[in-house]
């Protein structure tokens, strides 16, 4: 499957980009960098794509395993190189699970399957950055 995305300049530093789903988003930069701070920043969107890809895998696998969680969050951090072009050299993804009597073994298996087998965005990140992951369980 191929994807096509159309990104259209809206003036100043703002762009509108579509998605194969038909949804759009705004891309912009900070005011100090000449933008309006009205949209998402490109590199940060990469971190969102990473978390979203893995998160979709994890919730799908947990559903198949019949594992109940009350909440799930991922905190994703990217460390940039000092020189231009600035790229992520290290990325950390923290998986946070909330619930009663969390099944830690099954949750770990779901996360590991996403990281090692299913998440294509994770695989792409591994080609240019060191990727660290951790799982945090928050039992109510």
What does this structure look like?
With about 140 residues, this protein is α+β, with helices and mostly antiparallel strands. About 30% of the residues lie in helices and about 35% in strands. The protein is built from three helices and six strands. It has helices at about 40-65, 105-120, 120-125; strands at about 5-10, 15-20, 25, 70-80, 90-100, 130-140. Strands 1-2-3 form a three-stranded antiparallel sheet, with no helix packed on it. Strand 2 and strand 3 form a beta hairpin. Helix 1 packs across helix 2. It is globular, with a radius of gyration of 17 Å. It starts with 6 loop residues before the first strand and ends with a strand. The relative contact order is 0.15. The mean pLDDT is about 95. This is OsmC family protein. It comes from Gelidibacter salicanalis. InterPro entries: KH_dom-like_a/b, OsmC/Ohr_fam, OsmC/Ohrsf.
Which descriptors apply to this entry?
about 140 residues, OsmC/Ohrsf, 3 helices, alpha+beta, 6 strands, single chain, globular, three-stranded antiparallel β-sheet
